[in-house]
Design a protein that fits this description.
By secondary structure, this protein is of the alpha+beta class. The protein has one domain. The protein contains 4 helices and 3 strands, in the order ββααααβ. Strands 2-1-3 form a 3-stranded antiparallel sheet. The protein is globular and about 35 Å long. The chain starts with a strand and ends with a strand.
Length: 90
């Protein structure tokens, strides 16, 4: 599937096989762009812990009450619903 990601300064298109691979890519990219100490924390998280933290931060930033995702597909659905990701081709 082809995804277009647009979060703050990040604007790129990636190809992934499924939602799980997308979540792993998001986590790796977030770690790569984070300062050293935050990078260490992100790298220590499981993918689902990272997803829950991303939703929590999105909620705080936008004064929302979205539930933490239960799986990678729910995280991808959340990212699409909030405009962070556009699925260009399934």
């Amino acid at each position: 599937m082809k995804l277009h990601i647009q979060i703050e300064q990040v604007k790129e298109t990636v190809e992934v096989r499924n939602a799980s691979e997308a979540l792993t890519r998001f986590k790796k990219e977030a770690a790569k762009r984070a300062p050293f100490l935050k990078r260490t924390v992100i790298n220590a998280m499981s993918d689902m812990t990272f997803a829950a933290e991303a939703v929590k931060m999105g909620n705080a930033r936008n004064n929302r009450q979205d539930a933490a995702p239960k799986n990678a597909q729910e995280f991808l659905d959340w990212a699409v619903a909030r405009g962070y990701v556009t699925i260009e081709s399934p």
